[in-house]
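A further point concerns the way the authors explain their paired sequence and structure data. Nothing conveys this as quickly as seeing an actual entry. An entry of this sort, consisting of the sequence and the corresponding backbone structure tokens, reads as follows:
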Amino acid sequence: MHEVARGEQARTESVVEQQHVLEKESDEKSRLVQSRLEQNKKAERTIIKREEGGQERRQRERGREREKKSEEEREPAQKTVPKTHLGTIIDVKK
């Protein structure tokens, strides 16, 4: 009888130990999964921020280009010398 009881006790102890090992492994895996999820979330946030920042930068650059083009269009109109003034310059140089 004692031998049977010892065998049963050994079995239950081994089952309990196996359960503890499995619980530890599952805890480690859940920690890893949580940390991976957090890393993925952080990566997504940074990607979104980069994309948003890139769009804003592009919009600013486009705005600057438009301003430069409009300034360039304005400058030739301002730089043209009236024809009457041009004639006097030519006469003076001769």
About this structure: The chain is about 95% helix and 0% strand. Residues 2-93 form one domain.
